[in-house]
Amino acid sequence: MLNFEFKNPTKILFGRGEIAKISKEVPEDANVLMIYGGGSIKNNGVYDQVKEALKGHQVYEFGGVPANPEYEVLINALDLIKEKDITFLLAVGGGSVIDGTKFLSAAANYEGEPWEILTKPVRTFEGEGMPFGTVLTLPATGSEMNSGYVISRRETNEKLSTGGPGLFPQFSVLDPEVVRSIPPRQIVNGLTDAYTHVLEQYMTAPSSADLQERIAESILISLQETAPKVLSGDFDYDAAGNFMWCCTMALNGLIQKGVITDWAVHAMGHELTAYFGIDHARTLAIIAPSHYRYNFESKKGKLAQYAERVWGIKDGTTEEKAEAGIRKLEEFFHSLNIQTRLSEYTEDYEGTAERVERAFTERNWLGLGEYKKLTPQDAYKIVEMSY
Ligand code: NZQ
Ligand code: ZN
């Protein structure tokens, strides 16, 4: 097991009715900016619950953060933060709203041009960001309990990420009741994103970190078992709760400790969102199977372990089990109605591999993956295999 440090300071308030408790978590004398998305919180009662909980606080609002939060929109929130002397941010939404809030937390006290934070990139250390909390409305990203974020810039077709230990939410409310109003398309996105987060931290080489591996496999199995229940059409509180907690646990830092991690699927996937606007989770389902086939030799031991422990495939050689594991992964995505080929999302896919290769080269991303050896030319081949 590799050496590691682990500190996750986010307080979780899990369960029905917990939104009311934010009145005690947000400092009484704070000037609060409540940040939300396109309006789903106004239709499902979450907005009213937050307003009721904070009726004793000074609260300003900034709505309209789009999916794949855009720099151009967030800059307006930054102006409001300065104008109103805001001291505390409250994100009420999914990964996009929470990520946008993390960017604002980092940018509020940053002296230079805010976009530099993403391009340099600048990490935000403890005490540097503006304090913030979250009320999660969409299980998927894990952003509610981690310190990373991803911001898009429409003008330049870029989607870039950064973070830092100063950007953990102070608290996050996880009330499974919010799942009631989530459309099926976003539920399958959440399942797929969380599933792939586990894979990015697991599908490398077999390791000696037995507990992390078993926890990772448990999250994968729980997501597989929960998927049909949260998609059945009848709201099931416990299934919603399991779905939510799986998504949080998939990317709160725990399973990546002591092991090597990949993250190349996300790097390539972000490009597909930047070029074509494809939902984040779907880009991962497009890239992951090709990534595992292309890197078969270095990943086959773990792929076989995945096939065996997660899908119960006991027969065959390591290679046969590994290939069966990739097929099972594709079947799982297809069972969620998620297509796994780029050409199923856009007719305009020719030339994408060149674009990705060029973007990675220009950013000097010359060695990605768990061994830092995946070159822009390798990314070219993987993206081409995903057409
Ligand atoms: O904007 P509103 O009206 O709220 O609608 C949203 C949005 O249209 C809707 N929604 C959210 N909660 C709902 C709901 N609709 C009905 N009922 C509810 N309870 O769902 C739509 C999608 O929301 P969004 O926040 O964009 O989805 P998600 O949580 O999947 O976030 C995606 C973003 O997070 C980034 C992605 O790249 C993408 O930009 N990620 C962030 C990560 C992190 N910070 O750790 C890791 C991930 O890998 C990912 O990259
Ligand atoms: Zn993701």
TrEMBL record:
GO cellular component, one term: cytosol
A Pfam family reported for this protein in Swiss-Prot or TrEMBL: ADH_Fe_C
Recorded family membership: Belongs to the iron-containing alcohol dehydrogenase family.
Location of the Fe-containing alcohol dehydrogenase-like C-terminal domain: 190-385
GO molecular function: alcohol dehydrogenase (NADP+) activity; butanol dehydrogenase (NAD+) activity; metal ion binding; methylglyoxal reductase (NADPH) (acetol producing) activity
E.C. designation(s): 1.1.1.1
Stated name of the protein: Iron-containing alcohol dehydrogenase
Keywords assigned by UniProt, alphabetized: Oxidoreductase
Gene3D superfamilies listed in its UniProt record: 3.40.50.1970, Dehydroquinate synthase-like - alpha domain
PROSITE patterns assigned: ADH_IRON_2
InterPro entries in the record: ADH_Fe/GldA, ADH_Fe_C, ADH_Fe_CS, BDH-like
Sequence ranges assigned to domain Alcohol dehydrogenase iron-type/glycerol dehydrogenase GldA in this UniProt record: 9-176
